[in-house]
From TrEMBL:
Record protein name field: Phosphoribosyltransferase domain-containing protein
A Pfam family that the UniProt record links to this protein: Pribosyltran
CDD domains with a match to the protein in the record: PRTases_typeI (cd06223)
InterPro entries from the UniProt entry: HGPRT, PRTase-like, PRTase_dom
Coiled coil: none
């Protein structure tokens, strides 16, 4: 958000309906509930390698020797784990002595396929340790941006050395709160997305690809209110 560089994202156009589920490995349990595959796993991992290099470039420019990744659970867990691995590999290949730490935050605004009005945050460790640290918030998906906006304000009050935000996906929406991450993997159409640790009512999380749920899937796995 407060950054001296401009991020780049891979753009998935609105007219792209997704790859066929017949062309990729997919769990039989979920295949009939998937409208299409927006981003295959291999493309995700390739994009993460480039994001890791961009993050390291900015760390080096600031003279940083450590970075704390704050993973927003549960949806960003897979993204954070893979990004951490790519960061460590890139730092090693460059012979850079940069220590990578991983910490967690629980946040939730969704009820079924709707974004709720109240964002609940719960820190998994002492927030006082973030003072004068370089922080990278790791989020799976920017929908309305309310979660990140609230979290960014909270973290800024802890007086870290820097705060940046890395998001795997940003949806194109008209009702966002104008929160712009520093690093973005893919900009995607405004559809209901699952897979690669992103869930719908605690289902679909284990899918390896980023997929779109069809109407049948939304109905089948909706939480009964």
């Amino acid at each position: 958000m407060e950054s001296d560089h401009k991020y780049h994202a891979v753009i998935i156009p609105d007219e792209f309906s997704g790859y066929s589920t017949c062309d990729f490995r997919l769990s039989q349990r979920y295949s009939k509930y998937i409208e299409g595959i927006l981003v295959p796993r291999g493309m995700i991992l390739d994009r993460l390698e480039k994001m890791a290099l961009d993050i390291l470039d900015n760390l080096e420019r600031r003279g940083s020797t450590s970075l704390t990744l704050l993973c927003i659970l549960k949806g960003a867990f897979k993204f954070a784990a893979d990004l951490c691995e790519k960061l460590e590999a890139a730092a090693f290949s460059r012979q850079k002595n940069i220590t990578i730490h991983l910490d967690f935050i629980v946040a939730n605004t969704y009820v079924n396929d709707r974004v709720g009005h109240e964002t609940r945050l719960s820190m998994c460790s002492d927030p006082g340790k973030y003072e004068n640290k370089d922080l990278l918030v790791v989020e799976d998906l920017v929908d309305t941006g309310t979660t990140l906006h609230k979290l960014y304000s909270y973290l800024k009050a802890l007086n870290p050395r820097s705060i940046e935000v890395a998001c795997l996906l940003v949806k194109r929406r008209q009702d966002c709160v104008s929160f712009y991450p520093d690093y973005v993997g893919f900009e995607v159409p405004d559809r209901f997305i699952v897979g690669y640790s992103i869930d719908y009512s605690d289902h679909f999380r284990e899918l390896p690809h980023i997929c779109v749920v069809n109407d049948q899937g939304k109905k089948q796995f909706a939480v009964r209110e």
